[in-house]
Write a structure and sequence with these properties.
The protein is mainly α and 161 residues long. The chain is built from 5 helices and 2 strands. Strands 1-2 form a two-stranded antiparallel ribbon. α1 packs across α2.
């Protein structure tokens, strides 16, 4: 509570914002609707260009929504595909531009999530646990990590180190 007004936590396309009082309902609904200077400031914090940040947040929001509704994700197409970053932004993710499957399947979203986790908490174990999870993918006749965009050599990429 702040001055008798409860704090409000709102989710906007995968990002949580805590705002108090009437201001809570005046926020834009997507990152692309944020004021240009706000997008630039947030993107700078993560070492990204604003358009890359918006694209990546939309990708993660799409994956979150598919997952929340228990829909098929591992071999489904990602509608909001992540932009390929410029080499000066996120060099460890430039490889997602080398093959369409890396961006159109869950791999691209997992790599983007790994990037954000490492930027927010460099000591987090999530990227290595995600890597181990996909490396342990069971052999099945009509399913493979490749269908999820995890192409040969994916686990040697710097984002998973």
């Amino acid at each position: 509570m702040q001055h008798g007004r409860p704090l409000c936590c709102r989710w906007h396309q995968g990002a949580a914002f805590v705002i108090s009082g009437p201001d809570a309902f005046a926020l834009p609904q997507t990152p692309s609707q944020f004021h240009r200077s706000d997008r630039a400031a947030i993107a700078k914090r993560y070492g990204l260009l604003p358009n890359t940040l918006v694209s990546w947040i939309k990708t993660l929001a799409f994956v979150r929504n598919i997952s929340a509704h228990h829909a098929r994700l591992w071999n489904a197409g990602i509608i909001n595909q992540p932009l390929v970053p410029k080499p000066f932004e996120a060099p460890q993710l430039v490889h997602i531009g080398s093959a369409l499957e890396r961006r159109t399947r869950v791999y691209g979203a997992a790599a983007v999530a790994s990037y954000f986790v490492r930027r927010i908490n460099p000591g987090a174990s999530w990227p290595s646990r995600m890597k181990a999870h996909w490396q342990a993918f069971p052999a099945m006749p009509f399913a493979s990590p490749i269908q999820g965009g995890f192409l040969a050599g994916w686990d040697a990429e710097a984002i998973w180190a």
